[in-house]
């Protein structure tokens, strides 16, 4: 795994969202900051807690000119169920072949309950108006992810 770091150019991508519409990172460049957050699987406990925190923070994120794009290897239909079930108010993207996860360096070997497998590592990237990664979120608890993001955004706004 060769994870991107602060200052790197964000890889360009276009993926299908929960409504099976194409969404490109380029759609936001120059207009809004983008929080790209990678999560392993829709509707699992940790991913649900993380998504609900971002859902409940949408007003503050919007005030900080930041849009949220959640990316997982789930199919659009599963993403649509996740959005509906949890009343999510941001875009989820389907990376079925995990190409975007590979490009960001978040796909790799994981260990869980004594088993090893390849999957998405839970990391988030803040992409600035210029398309460069301005912050990498790699140390957080799922229930605190939204607050960690807001804290960084507020510090960046103050600078």
Structure description:
It is a single chain. With 159 residues, the chain is α+β, with helices and mostly antiparallel strands. It has a single domain (14-154), classed as Glutaredoxin (3-Layer(aba) Sandwich), CATH 3.40.30.10. 31% of the residues lie in helices and 28% in strands. It contains five helices and nine strands; from the N terminus they run βββααβαβαββββα. The chain has helices spanning 45-56, 58-63, 76-86, 99-104, 145-158, and strands spanning 14-17, 22-24, 33-38, 66-72, 91-94, 107-112, 115-120, 124-127, 133-137. It has a seven-stranded mixed beta sheet. β1 and β2 (22-24) form a beta hairpin. The model has no long low-confidence stretch (mean pLDDT 94).
Cα-atom Rg, whole angstroms? 15 Å
Largest sheet, strands/sense/barrel: 7 strands, mixed
Report the order of strands and helices. EEEHHEHEHEEEEH
Helix/strand-derived category reads alpha+beta
CATH-defined topology: Glutaredoxin
> How many separate structural domains?
1
Identify the CATH class: Alpha Beta
Please indicate the percent range of residues in DSSP E strands (runs of 2 or more): 25-35%
Low-confidence stretches: none
Kindly state the number of beta strands. 9
Distance between the termini: 32 Å
Shape: globular
The CATH architecture can be named as 3-Layer(aba) Sandwich
The total of helices stands at 5
CATH H-level homologous superfamily name:
Glutaredoxin
What does the average pLDDT come to? 94
User: Major sheet: order of its strands?
Assistant: 2-1-5-4-3-8-9
**Fraction of helical residues:** 25-40%
